Amino acid sequence: MVRDGDCGAEPAAGGVYFRVWAPAAERVEVVIEGEQRAYRLQPGAHGHHCAFVPGLAPGALYRYRLEGRGPYPDPCSRFQPSGPHGPSMVVDPHAYRWHDGGWMGVEIKGQVIYEMHIGAFTEEGTFDAAARELEHLKDLGVTVLEVMPIAEFPGRWNWGYDGVDLFAPYHGYGDHDAFKRFVDAAHRHALAVMLDVVYNHVGPDGNYLGCYSADYFSARQPNDWGRSINFDGPGCSGVRELYIRNACYWIREFHLDGLRLDATQSIHDTSWPHILAQIAQRARKQAHPRRIILTAENEPQDARYLAPMEAGGFGLDAMWNDDFHHSARVALTGRREGYYHDYRGRAQEFVSAAKHGFLFQGQYYRWQEQARGTPALDQPAWAFIAFIQNHDQVGNTLNGERLHRITSPGRLRAMTALLLLAPHTPLLFMGQEFGASQPFGFFADHNPQLGKQVHAGRREFLSQFVNYATAAAQARVPDPADEACFRNSKLDRSERDRHVALYALHRDLLRIRRQDAVIARQDRRAIDGAVLSDHAFVLRWFDAREGDRLLVVNLGEEAHVRPAPEPLLAPPCAARWRLVWSSDDPRYGAHGAVSPCTERGWRLPGESAALLRADTDPTRAT
Asked: From CA 1, how far away is CA 3, in angstroms rounded?
């Protein structure tokens, strides 16, 4: 039977229950494919319409007709075998037999996130093909897979942020149980799975929500991607409930370990409790006793999202830290166009990020001519998700260039060490671990008219970068509807075995992060840092029992610190610094590892990083 309050189609003994929210409609009918008649749904409470249709079974195809209009696919369809414009399919949500009964979920502390696009992760572009690669991801050392949006979208390829059927996994990635098989396989490998969900807008093509109710959308608040969702205006109660139940649906039926909430600055809600707070509360209740992770992308970096509900917050676990990325990008490329304008890529920024998370916590931000961020000094280090690549930041270049293409190998190795050893929660973007040769372009397959608009919008967005605004560059902006843009973005998995040096770098650093008791603690209260030059700095972990750790990073040319009037460089009493790891190891394609600490001071090789440990030195004992 359809759960109380849930919409959709659910098999029961002898037939199927249908339930849909259409508050303004007086006559709603379900039209079964292949039959000559329609079945009328009975009006119920709060704008819902319900009916039991005998003789149907899973696999039946159906649509709804409202006041004679339509028929339209179900807004709560579990599967759209022919895409968003076709009929919905009845799916038995209990048919799949799970094998993860002992899996209890994860918490944000201690995790390493791996962002992936199912269509481009493998040549086949399916959930089943991606599942075959899980052993390698486990071996790499990641712990959480963050899957880019999979809600049914129009066309043959898309980043996923144009989804229109919130409950239906994209049919091109596999059958209606394919995502469950993927999650189940991940849990067998002790990997958690999060899903990127888009609750700030609905895609422009294949969106039938407005046919069921005008209350779904609001024109009161601006939105960069279309009409805003009505979370706080007249008639919003049914809209709020649909989105809350969608979050619970992914957690319940797909055993997901969390959600990443896209562009939350465009989720407008002036009421209380805020829709995100309700989603967090209900999703955790749905998961209990399993633990789940809820994270957010929030361009303004509003720390309210991390505060508990009782303190006026939304109760999320972590937020993406764009500040870290922007500083890293400037440091690695030397370029400050567009939204990189307010970052210098200097040592102070990385010390501050390690100690305090966001760099902008309320200061004036010239690029936007307003203050950016809110105070977040009381948040734990793991509440900040740091990255040097993700789908946006790779895709927001002319040709989807990956970072190793536009910086030096030495700088990339040093920055990777900072990313994977600092106390924040690190995120890797698929292929980053082995220096994928393939770009990750912006691809979206729409009808010709909409495709032209998307291509024009892409040109306009890229024009904020000085070089991309030139006539020559604008003429070369790839067409997202070109199949080559999608095909060229597919990973070549064999490069993992050919690019062994970079892969070994990532695997070794993740092993240290996991096994080193001091680093694994992610305690930013026990860490301090010092600037040695514009491009060189140290981070020091203090631990009297296990021994201090010292990460020395130099993103510039070779530097000599002699003398060294910086207390953080001094080892603890009766101890000395021992080299544990170096980005200059020949295994990573470098020239040779040498400790930066010498008897006569410090020599910092250019474009390198080194991790040292304080070990007892009998010659210094008193």
From this structure: 6
Q: Which helix (H) or strand (E) holds 126?
A: none
- Cβ proximity of 447 and 205 under 8 Å: yes
Q: Which domains does the chain have, with CATH numbers?
A: 8-89 (2.60.40.10), 523-620 (2.60.40.1180)
| Average pLDDT over every residue of 508-521 | 98
- pLDDT at residue 275 above 90? yes
Pull the structure tokens for residue 20. 């849909």
Give φ, ψ of 206 to 5 degrees. Answer: 90, 10
**Residue ranges of the alpha helices (H) in 384-423?**
391-395, 409-421
Active-site residue 378, yes or no? Answer: no
Name the active-site residue from 262, 302, 317, 445.
Answer: 262
Q: Is 162 a catalytic residue?
A: no
Whole-prediction pTM = 0.97
Report yes or no: 506 and 429 within 8 Å, Cβ to Cβ. Answer: no
Task: Find tokens 């040319």 and name the residue.
Answer: 557
Residue 400: Cβ within 10 Å count = 20
User: Around Cβ 412, how many Cβ atoms within 10 Å?
Assistant: 22
pLDDT digits (tens, 9 = 90+) for 362-421: 999 999 999 999 999 999 999 999 999 999 999 989 899 999 999 999 999 999 999 999
Number of separate helices (H) and strands (E) present in the chain: 17, 30
Nearest to 431 by CA among 210, 140, 209, 169: 140
Residue found by looking up tokens 């958690």 in the block: 192
- Which pLDDT band holds residue 6 (cuts at 50, 70, 90)? confident
Q: Are 421 and 519 in contact (CB under 8 A)?
A: yes
Which position among 146, 152, 257, 297 bears the catalytic label?
A: 297
Residue type, 550: L
Separation CA 242–CA 275 (nearest Å): 11
Confidence of residue 5 (pLDDT cuts 50, 70, 90): low
Distances 615 to 39, 537, 574, 580 between C-alpha atoms, Å: 77, 21, 8, 11
Q: How confident is the model at residue 37 (pLDDT cuts 50, 70, 90)?
A: confident
3-state SS assignment for residue 254: coil
